[in-house]
Amino acid sequence: MHLQKSVTMTASLKRYCLTHEGLIISVKEFRTSRCMRLIVHSGGSVTLTCPPRTTKMSAAQYLLKNFDWLRRTVERQKVKVEMPGVNTIVATPELTKALRSKAAAYVPGRLKHLAALNGLGYKSVKITATRSKWGSCSSLGQICVSCYVMALPVELVDFVLLHELAHTRHMNHSKKFHDALDAMLPAHNERQLNKIMKTYNIVKP
Ligand SMILES: [Zn+2]
Description:
This protein is an alpha/beta fold. The chain folds into two domains: 4-82, no CATH class; 89-203, Metalloproteases ("zincins"), catalytic domain (Zincin-like), CATH 3.30.2010.10. Helices cover 40% and strands 24% of the residues. It contains six helices and ten strands, in the order E-E-E-E-E-H-H-E-H-E-E-E-H-H-H-E. The strands form three sheets. It has a five-stranded mixed sheet with strand order 1-2-3-5-4, covered by helices on one side. It has a three-stranded mixed sheet with strand order 7-9-8, covered by helices on one side. Strands 6-10 form a two-stranded parallel sheet. A hairpin with a 6-residue loop joins strand 1 (4-5) and strand 2. The radius of gyration is 25 Å and the shape is elongated. The relative contact order is 0.11. Bound molecules: zinc ion (ZN). Zinc ion binds next to helix 4. The site of zinc ion (ZN) has 3 residues, from helix 4.
């Protein structure tokens, strides 16, 4: 087995590549490594770091043992990078918990304020952890708001709330609905804000 010595600035002792099911894994041996570790870089490239004198066989075994996890992680990284201009909110349990309490403290009061400002009424407001939509409004005037709005800039939070409030007048996305919503926006820029909203998405960790 031939192992190429490192000629780069990194402090790795040896480096070579392993391939499995189309994935190329660059293996690097470090004097300071205590155990093997797989690192998935943004863009989906993979490094396996190893302690000194790790055999190619044990590196390959470690790789196979962790390959299912590795493939899933690489796919997720690729998806994230392949969407240019997208602001991805990764919905970890910790973030969800934090945003839920932020939303509970902010959204009901803000919604009440915006409704009063525009002479609109609604029946109730509920905070959810929905990832597929920012909010919803039932025909009975029950408004649901996803806690992930709290990860948006503040003017977009208002935009989501005003969108749902506009549904208390128009239960559709007709021209009348968009006109009513646009009229409630300080800059009357509904189209522009809709475009910006589309650059945000929420993904599972
Ligand atoms: Zn809507």
